[in-house]
Amino acid sequence: MSHHKIEVSNLHFSYPDGHEAIKDISFTIYHGESVGIIGANGSGKSTLLSLIMGILFPDRGEVKVGEVTVTKKTLAMIRQRLGMVFQDPDDQLFMPTVFDDVAFGPRNYNLDENEVKTRVEEALEMVGIPHLIDRAPFKLSGGEKRAAAIATVLSMKPDVLIMDEPTSGLDPKSRRKLINILKGFSHTKIITSHDLDMVLETCDRVIVLKDGEIAADGTTQEVLTNGKLLDSCGLEIPLSMQKCPVCGMIK
Q1: Buried b (16+ CB within 10 A) or exposed e, 129-159
Q2: What residue ranges define each of the domains in the chain, with the CATH number in brackets?
Q3: Over the stretch 213-244, which tens digit does the pLDDT of each residue have?
Q4: What is the chain's percent helix, strand, coil content, to nearest 5?
């Protein structure tokens, strides 16, 4: 059984006010893929991630991780396989020190304290902030908080890394550092973002959502060069692929 494969089948979801956010969505993500999920505001990106993670549950259809269907009864198993980094890192950082935040998950699984320490150090090393291990999270910069939030997920050793708007609010240097971190991960990755240049660099496949439905699903290159498609979905070709207004050259 591959815990890395995620199957979304005929998914439907409506909020209590009647808004139909997800309409009959189906796709499969395989081991090692890095998939960007893009779309305009309100297209259903965050709702879809919440359904995959079991934060919300569908009205119809199902999500399977490996051979396990995401239900309330299987959440503990699912959460060991899928690790999600939320859009706001403050939602994941609440302990006195970075060490304690990154150790929180492994400690909840009653791991030996030596194993916890090893996992914390490895996770912080992966995101390039081992020197912040004893810092208070509220004293970190935006980029440092984002890296620490990613480390809290990596310490759980998930098969799949899920990220919601990972570059939101980052300055250019922190954004570049995060992109380099993501490019270095061998995890299966699912990333939602409005930052299409980041998606271009970090994802090999893109799923485009429009009004809760899949408008396109293909390689990053073919999707992000399709100006007509992107425009119809409230998006535009990544800036790095557009012609310079001065010299007419593409980067």
Answers
A1: beebbeeebeebeebbbbbbbbbbbbbbebb
A2: 6-241 (3.40.50.300)
A3: 999 999 999 999 999 999 999 999 998 888 66
A4: 40, 25, 35
